[in-house]
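Quick start: read one record
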Amino acid sequence: MLGGSDKDSELTDTDSGDTADDGNTGDTGNTGDTGNTGDTGNTGDTGNTGNTGDTGDTGNTGDTGNTGNTGNTGNTGDTGDTGDTGDTGNTGDTADPCAPCDLSNRKCVQQGENWVCTGCKTKYYENTEDLCVAKGDLGHECDFAEYAGIDCDSGKCVDGVCCNDVCDGLCESCNVSDFYKGTCTPFLAGTDPDDECEAGNTYDCDQNGFCDGLGACQMYDTSTVCQTPVCVGNISKGSAYCDGSGTCDLSSRPEADCEPYTCDIPQGICSGNSCSNDLDCIAGYYCQGSTCVNKKPNGSYCTSNNQCSSNDCTLDDFGTDGFKYCVPNAPAHCAKESSWYVANTTFCVTAGGTTYKKCTPDLWGTAINCTNVAKRGCVVAPWKTKAGFYNADSCADTGTGAVCNADSTCEECAFARLILIPGGTKPVSYTSVYNFGTTVCNTNCRGKTGILNDSICAQESTTSTTHRCVEVEDSKGALVGICAELLGGGETCTFNEQCKSGSCFKGKCTVAP
């Protein structure tokens, strides 16, 4: 590079060596030419200066040059004093001292007795090959790493080209396109060649990772969802969008009431206008077919718990129709003909019957018998044996529940039938009073084998027989046993068996012998 301090040189005509040839010792001077070869090392010339001094020692001083060995070769020249005549060759100094400089782009200035090539002229710069090169216009390629902008006429090397500005702002370049090359210009919207804009979160409506075409990072625009649909209770609030300025606009999101269908929480939207199960319906509704319908009030006919607002569809097992009804479930209730009853409520199975049912939620269960479900024997005057009966209890529904009413009237076990009186020709009605049997009053004191049993007949004494079982024919000719009173002598009678004596003569009992 010409113009450096180490590279500055005295501008001396190297042809002075040829003048040495005129000194008849040219050959020796030619050896000096060898020293000129030293000029390649920019030191042999210094040896020539020694010749001018006529003092070889001074020439030795030249040995201090950068290449002393080359200077030594100059010493050979020193032996030829005749060579001093070569000083006449100094007339070559009349040559242009700036000839080695390219004056079209480099300066040539005198420094002391010497002329040197210095820096490049205006609009030129010195490259790495020590050449002055014209500085680039706007848009011309440049190398900032090597020249830091001195290779540009504007002094600014940006993005590999000479630029009109430092262009160090966000989202801008001096090499956006061929048309704008050399002029600091924002990147096109939606691009980010320099990766300057880091993408933020959409829910914050932050920058979207691209430039906005105006020298800044672009924000998420109004087409960007910043909040997905959300369920608030059973209200579906639709998507919210960024406002393009960094804010999520929650004020204009649409709302929809999903009733009677549910709001799908994961999706944030109504589940639709149909259902596949109760989970698709809100509280108070159930899925019937594919439609959400209102749950039923208590007392309504139902087939399953989910149909009832109480979630309790109970079988009416009091009757036999098998219907179910909605009833309260806190506490549990029993159902009866679209009504509902609490625990321990009782009802007669049939009015006047002998059984009732008690509510043991949610069922009425098995019928319960009254205390007396059948007739029972009793003693009725004038008889001393159980010749009477009480009827079975009678169930009656009251305001407090079922009541089994017990019979308190003892009725006589009297039984009338048509019989043929011995010696008579026509059946006559005859009433016998029998004792009460196991569950009913007896109506015949003759057994199936023909045995007559006086104990079946009602007696007016508990210690003696007052009535006897008598065998007679009924109106159909069948043998039956009637109860006849045993009469004393002289008492009116109709047949012998009535008399204690066993003889009824002319309508009077005879006296026993």
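Residues 1-92 have pLDDT under 50 and may be disordered.
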